[in-house]
């Protein structure tokens, strides 16, 4: 969670800060790929693409696009569960958030994919406040619920993919450890008493104390979004979305002549290495995802040498992470071209007026 966003309520200055961090992530990405080209023979990588079946890239981009639409569906479901359009039970005024505007805000958040753990995607909450006056703390937990459900989906897909991996027992403990961490996070953040108690402890610390006080508005929305039934729905959608990206990776990998890899193997490779990147908390998982994917695919797939491993990794990341960055940048630029919303975002540069305490929400099913 971006401290300045919580402190200022999602102001324009914080949006600028997130954009600067995104540029840092892009720079890190360029550095990672330049280093890879220097370490490995760039001419051999280019040669491996000579007979590559390029239509596979188009299909992978299509699958990524469908995944983004499924993730937008998750965003819309979460807004509905929080009753954002209806005023969140009196927390703010009812707002007419149109579906096209909601889609624009959601896609704009993709421009923050290269921030650590994608937490920069809370940009959506800042834009929603600028556009419709919805308090930042009301929707910031949507991003957290989205990431937790993604992690659950990646763990499930990795477990499924293990069925197609020989010697799978060596990887099982690591995947189960990731699952345990996710469950602990869900229990703490989804239980108001535990989440509130954690904030009480953090409030006593010198550096993060003030931030913890400002973050108390997140407790109610977190309890709503992390209800078991809602989390199951979000995770099921994530399984389908990430599964499509796994198929996209399979299409790209097998588009290289002489490569043999099963769908299940590619499901394991893409989900497990994406999980590694997410848990590394590096910007966009840069370096962690690419490095682990390149090593594992060369070890497990038939006909994959060093150059094919690097080339296929570059291509799938281009069709997922960097494609999302491009779509997000276009959506954000379009949003900021609207004079009214741009002015509202800039007006939020200063201190935001104090928000009223969120109303008590009945958490009974």
Keywords for this entry:
single chain, 365 residues, mainly alpha, 16 helices, globular, disordered N terminus, Integral membrane protein, transmembrane helix
Short description:
This protein has helices at 3-8, 12-39, 42-48, 55-81, 99-109, 123-132, 136-161, 172-190, 192-203, 209-214, 218-225, 228-253, 263-280, 288-300, 306-337, 339-347. The chain has 365 residues and is an all-alpha fold.
Please tell me about this protein's structure.
It is a single chain. The chain has 365 residues and is mainly α. The protein has one domain (3-345). 71% of the residues lie in helices and 0% in strands. It has helices at residues 3-8, 12-39, 42-48, 55-81, 99-109, 123-132, 136-161, 172-190, 192-203, 209-214, 218-225, 228-253, 263-280, 288-300, 306-337, 339-347. Helix 4 (55-81) crosses helix 5 (99-109), helix 4 (55-81) packs across helix 15 and helix 7 (136-161) crosses helix 12. It is globular. 47% of the residues are buried. Residues 1-13 and 346-365 have low confidence and may be disordered. This is Integral membrane protein. It comes from Plesiocystis pacifica SIR-1. Keywords: Cell membrane, Membrane, Transmembrane, Transmembrane helix. InterPro entries: L-PG_synthase/AglD (IPR022791). It is found in: Cell membrane.
